[in-house]
Structure formats: C-alpha cells, structure tokens
C-alpha cells in the first residue's frame, strides 16, 4: 500500500510539473501514468534488493553457527547467538527465534517458525540440516554445514553473474522504452506539438503509446525473469514425534 501511495504522489507531482512545462493536460496525464509506473517498479525493486541481501546473508549464518559449535557452544546456543552476532539483516528474526526458544524450550518448533518466516529454499536447506543433525545426534553437523555453505556460495555467485548479464539487457530495454517519451517531452516545447496531442486523435496516440510501453516492459521482464529454486522441504517435520 505504501508503494502505491508514493507512486501516486510522484505521479501527481509529475502531472503538475509537466503541465507547467507544456500547458497540455493530455501530455501531462500521459507522463503522470508513465511516472507512476516507473516509480512503482523502482520502489518494488527496493524490496527485491532487500530479498537479495537476505539471501546473500545465509552463507554468513552458516559460518557463525560453525564458529560457535567449534568454540564449544551447543547448536541451540549458536543459533540464539545469531540475534547479536549474526548478519544485521537477520538479527530481528533470530531475536524472535531466541525469544520463542526461551518461551517454550522446543528447538524444533522454533526452527519451524523460522522456516515459515523466511520461506526460501536456501534457508530451508540450512534448517533441515540442523533438524536432521539434532534428530540423529549431530555427529556430522559441521561437515554438513560446510558442504551446504559451499553449495550456497556457488549458487549465489552463479545467480549474481546471470543477474549482471540480464541487468545489461534490462537497462538497454528501459532506455529504449523511455527514449520516445523523452523526445515527446522535448517536442512539447513547441506549440504545434501541444496542439496536436490535445486533440482526440493525439490523446488516442498517447494512450496507445502507454499501452505499448507497458506491454513491451512486461514482455521484457518475463523474458529476463530468473526461475526460482523450488522449496522441497516445506512439508517435512523432521524431529517431531
């Protein structure tokens, strides 16, 4: 909801500024719709970057847990310590985990709550490894975590490389989509352009341009979308009697 409100605010500001610049209501409204779409995509991208930062923090979580276990702490103590020693982006979640753990004393239930909170295949793998180790005695816990950490780092590096290459393509597509509108804005300084787009035909052309821009962007986004690794541990309840 906050994203929609901020997009509406930016759109209103754009309409006012473009109207002062061109004196054309139809052109101003067209740019208002365009700015609303751009701001919505940009603000949504911030959420995606936050999710990427969250995913990138899991190898560090494994390092902290391994370090705690190697220093003599129990698995429970190592996980609870992530509330203060773990990656900053994950500390609030592990603070809730520690509170939940101290409240009911059930490590399995507390880990299941973390799984439900993060709902990501990488975190699922970590938590299932911890639950399996707890159920079987944990003699191979460090080896399992080390292997899992290496796998997550390799997967993360590969995805970053793919995202960089896709980013070049997306940026080129964004520039191609915005260029005609920049040209329209420059031409709007001419009275003849304002008069042409103030007619019904001109308004129809603006609407068609907005629709075609939206379709092209969604098509480009669909082609550039990276498939997500499915969650395969969602139905498992390891360690529960």
TrEMBL record:
Keywords: Cell membrane, Membrane, Transmembrane, Transmembrane helix. Residues 63-187 form the Type II secretion system protein GspF domain. GO terms for cellular component: plasma membrane. The chain crosses the membrane at residues 12-43, 194-219. Its main location: membrane. It is a multi-pass membrane protein. It is found in: Cell membrane. InterPro entries: T2SS_GspF_dom. This is Unannotated protein. It comes from freshwater metagenome. The lineage of its organism: unclassified sequences, metagenomes, ecological metagenomes.
